[in-house]
Amino acid sequence: MGCLVALGCQAQTNVQNAVPTLPAAGVAAIQPGVKLTAEMARRVELMIRNRAQVTPDYVFTIGVPTQSEVPGFDQIMVTLTAGGKSSKPLPFLLSSDGKTLGQFNKFDLSQDPKDLVSAAGRPARGGPANAPVIVVGYDDLECPYCAKMNAQIFPALLDRYKDQVRVVYRDFPLSEIHPWAMHAAVDANCLGSTSTAGYWNYVDYVHAHADEIGGTDQAVGTDQTPSADQAEKFKQALAKADQTLHDLILNEGARQKVDAKELAACVLKQDVTDVNASVLQAEADPLRVVGVPTLFINGEKVDQLVAIETIYRIIDEALVAAGQTPPPPPPAAPVSTPAAAPASQPSPAAAKPGS
């Protein structure tokens, strides 16, 4: 919670009225359904306040203990209030003898992390649908960092792991800074619905030639309002990019022998529904994608570009967890060192003029 304005103390008594109280501070038992003594409530409050560095303007409301799932402990709910705003009730555990305060977080392990992000229905590269490792990449076709990953990291993964790894892309165009990324994503999906090879050919080409397609970034995402001349240049550049993308997708469709009329109709419609749904799902819990490229490797999130050795380690660990043997590590790159001058000859710096 952010810093809130100071309050009075009346919020402290909200939940605890008309509940029986332990008779004295010396009672060595915490009982479900029985209000904490003022002395015990203060101990709890000060422990939380000091440990979490809660500022004095927050007022604590400590609920009546209830039975918990942990033997020897009861649960108390603590709410912090300031400026007329209250936190969500925070669960704590209080031992039956009143000597120990703890927190208990319960996480659901029943879902396979691999299923956190679905690869279903997306064009794929690499291994089969039941490959032991699924890599889902959130991609923006106008993003230079995504282009680097597409050109360097993914080919290296597929070369090393072969059918052990399956790669799919999901859409996350950053339209506020990449003005034709949405158009490119829609076009890719129009072709990808009927041709996996065509989809990847298009994705590879657009990533590799984004600078030639675009030229619109300089007029987007700035704090200054563009002049009329800049706005016109931006409009022309965007129209050129849109036409280039249109031509690229139709030409690739022709190479893949897909239905030309159906592909053209999909491209002209520019239906962004599926792409927007992909973005919304990525931004929400539990994925919380905020930028690209972002990978999920059997459910493990990898934000932005990282060293390929890190990705190798994550995939190797995922393979071992799946009962598979990772391939041998790739050979280390040779380290070049400058050749030493022969001992029998002086170095150039030691040579005298005229010698």
Number of domains: 2
Would you give the CATH topology of the largest domain? Glutaredoxin
User: Any idea what the CATH architecture of the largest domain is?
Assistant: 3-Layer(aba) Sandwich
CATH class of the largest domain: Alpha Beta
Largest sheet features:
6 strands, antiparallel
* Strand elements, count: 11
Number of separate helices: 9
SS content category: alpha+beta
Using only CA atoms, what is the Rg? 31 Å
Euclidean distance between termini CA atoms: 78 Å
Helix content: 25-40%
CATH superfamily of the largest domain: Glutaredoxin
Helix and strand succession? HEEEEEEEEHEHHHHHHEEH
| Average predicted confidence as pLDDT | 86
The geometry reads as: elongated
Give start-end ranges of low-pLDDT stretches. 1-25, 218-222, 341-355
* Beta-strand fraction estimate: 5-15%
How would you characterize the overall build of this protein?
By secondary structure, the protein is α+β, with helices and mostly antiparallel strands. Helices cover 35% and strands 14% of the residues. It has helices spanning 38-51, 144-161, 181-192, 196-208, 210-213, 228-255, 260-269, 273-283, 308-321, and strands at residues 59-62, 66-67, 73-82, 85-86, 90-95, 101-102, 124-126, 133-139, 165-171, 294-297, 300-303. A hairpin with a 2-residue loop joins strand 3 and strand 4 (85-86). Helix 3 (181-192) packs antiparallel against helix 4 (196-208), helix 3 (181-192) packs parallel to helix 6 (228-255) and helix 6 packs antiparallel against helix 7 (260-269). Mean pLDDT is 86; it is low at 1-25, 218-222 and 341-355.
